[in-house]
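ugh ok so i messed up the first submission bc i forgot one of the chains. this is the corrected input, ALL of the components this time, i swear. 1023 residues overall. if the numbers dont match what u have on ur side tell me asap before i send this to the collaborators (the ones from the other lab, u know who)
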Amino acid sequence: MKHTAGELAAYLGATLHGDSGAAISGVASPEKATAEDLLYLDSPKNRERVANSAAGCVLARPGVRLTSKTILEVEQPKFAFVKAAAWLAPQVALKAAIHPTAIVPKTARLHANVAIGPYVVIEDGVQIGEETIIEAFCFLGSASVVGKNCRLHPRVTLYPGARVGDRVEIHSGTVIGGDGFGYVFGEGRQWKFPQIGTVSVGDDVEIGCNTTVDRGSLGETHISGGVKIDNLVQIAHNVQIGEHTVIAAQTGISGSSSLGKRVAVGGQAGIGDHCCVEDEAKVGGQAGVVVGKTVRRGQTVWGTPARPLEKFKEQYAWFARLAELAARVGKLEESEHGEKG
Amino acid sequence: MKHTAGELAAYLGATLHGDSGAAISGVASPEKATAEDLLYLDSPKNRERVANSAAGCVLARPGVRLTSKTILEVEQPKFAFVKAAAWLAPQVALKAAIHPTAIVPKTARLHANVAIGPYVVIEDGVQIGEETIIEAFCFLGSASVVGKNCRLHPRVTLYPGARVGDRVEIHSGTVIGGDGFGYVFGEGRQWKFPQIGTVSVGDDVEIGCNTTVDRGSLGETHISGGVKIDNLVQIAHNVQIGEHTVIAAQTGISGSSSLGKRVAVGGQAGIGDHCCVEDEAKVGGQAGVVVGKTVRRGQTVWGTPARPLEKFKEQYAWFARLAELAARVGKLEESEHGEKG
Amino acid sequence: MKHTAGELAAYLGATLHGDSGAAISGVASPEKATAEDLLYLDSPKNRERVANSAAGCVLARPGVRLTSKTILEVEQPKFAFVKAAAWLAPQVALKAAIHPTAIVPKTARLHANVAIGPYVVIEDGVQIGEETIIEAFCFLGSASVVGKNCRLHPRVTLYPGARVGDRVEIHSGTVIGGDGFGYVFGEGRQWKFPQIGTVSVGDDVEIGCNTTVDRGSLGETHISGGVKIDNLVQIAHNVQIGEHTVIAAQTGISGSSSLGKRVAVGGQAGIGDHCCVEDEAKVGGQAGVVVGKTVRRGQTVWGTPARPLEKFKEQYAWFARLAELAARVGKLEESEHGEKG
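and heres the new structure output, hopefully the right one now
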């Protein structure tokens, strides 16, 4: 959507220096920007890239000036940039249609204004809300529910009964509602613990590609509103994830663990069974939170077993100087030996 | 299937206290249970949840009593619960049918009593056994074989020639028989080692979502009967996995490694090439068994490089007290210096 | 393709001892080999397996002799074997055809000589080169491009605009071009950083099963020619991977990192944001290269945080002997105490 720099400044509450009538139609990288693309500058090291770009308008911190650029002064240029990007993004008009190859039973309740792609399979009793897009090869198991304004990219699977809120985006290859992993060994073989629970995904959630979210065993797996999950993440049965939490790629959350609100989990982290990661805690990349542990509110942990970051750093600093410490002990022993010898 | 408490007690060999005629139709969590749902109580901390539930019958250890509940006394309540759950589970009658959109060549040999879902692609020479269910978007490559009473959830891929036994369940997105990963660098580029071997999955195996099991390079990748594999697991070429072994999510087993029987592997563990994990060993979550190593029968290992758990704990205890040890060395040095000074 | 030992010796530049007219039609393992299969022997421990096989011809180092086998002497038997395997591999004639269930819009430009499998979905403006095979359930988003002589196994997703070079093989379940993972928290919620960049894959690349490669955020994600990527790997937005680099299963490369040429990354390794792994470096299995770090050209690193392998080994040796070091300190303290006492 095309706007002027003045309109954008008003939307963002930015102070404008330069041409308030300059057209802005999108965002870009400095290298790809045209005159109508908006850039942001939040670090001196990028100053030259931005200055040399073709862009006409730049979001920058108060006082920053760039020759022949219109500046929109804001406290947080990157945040203003993402807000602007969302505002400028072209609103694609949904072409409401059900592709003739999609299989939609009469028992399914689809809002009139939905887009169902080719080779979609919808089972009995499925519900789909307004302006939702279901792309090719998606499978919506019986009685599953997808809210309004959602987008399921090609090849998403919802197991029967899975529930997805509004404005949810799920990327290609992701599976919601598979059976949890629980067995009891007895009489010479593994017996499956019943995996008959439910799974629900709140509003405004985004889930990456090839991620797996299991249903509850007897209870529910729940992903709260505003949560963002990357690719190849594993969410086990009965996990609870609080609002606005972000989970990076290849992380695994084991059975019955709960994460609070606004938690940040790095890539490849592992959280054992029955853990509790409280609000606003941070779990570093590859960290391993051991079974049953709690990460306190706001705490940052790293390592396996995961411990507070400052502790990890202190321990690691000593670890890295072990050879030196051993040499000091050797010297003491020598001296001791000398005295006695 | 509806039963009475008396019938269930007889099936489980449990001692009944209470109403032997009480109806039991399923299992549930304490919070969701109706009067006809069975619960289990194996820890005092859950006593209140169970006591306050609507359930009429509870599996518990000998001597446990709950007001107005019928008790089935057993030594292992959780194990009895999973056995009961399997016994009570509704037996869904298979609707034998091949969906008109499924592609089934004349050279495929399907038992008359199978259920093939929409948009399934079956190639030449495929065999499918009695009462097997193949759900939407499954791809069965040429000459692949699936036994009887199997269930392939939507979107499972079997590469050509892959063999799957009886009573196997494979979840959505899993790929069996992809090419192994092996290259030799020479003449300025990577050359692919031939990946022309086979892959076979034994009876009573369950495999989670988005897992990958590669075919052998020249030989065979083999998953034995009763093995249970979680989501997003990687099983490389030529791997051998023994009976009743369980492998948690996001674990990777590298080329030519072998796991024995009843091994338990935690989540995100990595087992290098040419390792041997013997019967009943346990590999902890995120542990890394280094290339070529053996984990002895019954041993529990943790850490990277993986070592016996007791060793890990001892080392870690010292590691956590390194600052203290260094302070002690410092004090000795001071005293030494004092003497000499 | 059937050849003689003499022809193969000429192709490989090998010195032949034995029957130059012996027929060779393929490669195999010693256990499965027929008289016409080629084997290689590069380690004395395999000598018996090879000697006892039915194979007529064996690649071996100069001077090696096996009773009644024709020997092709080469410096690197394994490398010669992979070269021979490629040379001997049956050239399957492509059956150019578009399956009637494939959806191909008029705006797509497909070379006349392509094979498009059942239930393939191709969107507007897609280009596909000569002799390329697109198998069942592949999804090629609008304006995506696939070069010539490629093979996309069943169920590969290319997001709109993804570009794939020539002679590329992509295995089942892999997704190229999903949105990168970047959010900025503000005003009480996560805002998505725009993910509007591109993704390109060079020539001669092979990518395993269920791997994910994200598009650039504003710029490009690029995988150079000759790169080989295993199963379940995550390649984040804006990552650059140099020629002939190999990346083992379940590894994750975070946003904006670059890997040089001929780098080798072990399984389950993690490379943080904005890292630089220079040419010919090696990152060990499960290693974690911390955000922003550089791994120098040719260096081998291991552990988390990743450090040079020799340093890791030295540190780990001390770590494993911490109890002993502590005992030495204790003894010194005792002696000190004795002197003073």
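quick check: Residues 97-311 of chain C form a domain with the UDP N-Acetylglucosamine Acyltransferase; domain 1 fold (CATH 2.160.10.10). that seems consistent at least. Chain C has two domains: 3-88, 97-311.
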